[in-house]
Amino acid sequence: MLELCGAAGVFAVAGCLGSDPETDDSPEDESEDTDDEPDEPEGGRLTVQVMTDSGEPIEAATAWISGGDLDEEEQQTDGNGEAVYEGLEEDTYEIEVETEELGSESGTALVREGSNVTRPFSFEENDD
């Protein structure tokens, strides 16, 4: 049996000099044992999406949610019309959304452990 030994490519018969596979105590891969699986998400995620009835995002609307371990949490929607709440415990959340010119709406969303829920709200535009 021929084996390639070492970086120089020396061939040896019946094994490489100085290495016995049964007693070889050369260092194993010393890298840390890491789990390639992503960490389990902690809690759920709720995105409150606020749009006009024509599909345009509404920026700077105020969204409040309550439920789970939250009494009430308030956020302003971003340029995409979204307010994102993360790390929520499993529960049904009450949501209130208020816009400066188009009024307010309320609703609910069920958030489960590890879920990513989007709750849309659509406001009719004034024809003024």
Topology:
Elements: E1 2-5, E2 10-13, E3 44-52, E4 62-67, E5 70-76, E6 82-88, E7 91-99, E8 103-111, E9 116-123
Parallel strand pairs: 3-9
Antiparallel strand pairs: 1-2, 3-6, 4-5, 4-7, 7-8
Description:
The chain is elongated. The chain is built from no helices and nine strands. The chain starts with a strand and ends in a 5-residue tail after the last strand. It is an all-beta fold. The chain has a domain of 80 residues: Immunoglobulin-like (Sandwich), CATH 2.60.40. The strands form three sheets. A four-stranded antiparallel sheet has the order 5-4-7-8, with no helix packed on it.
Helix content: under 10%
CATH architecture of the domain at 44-123: Sandwich
Q: Given this structure, which CATH class of the domain at 44-123 is correct?
A: Mainly Beta
Largest β sheet strand count, sense and barrel closure: 4 strands, antiparallel
Fraction of residues in β-strands: over 45%
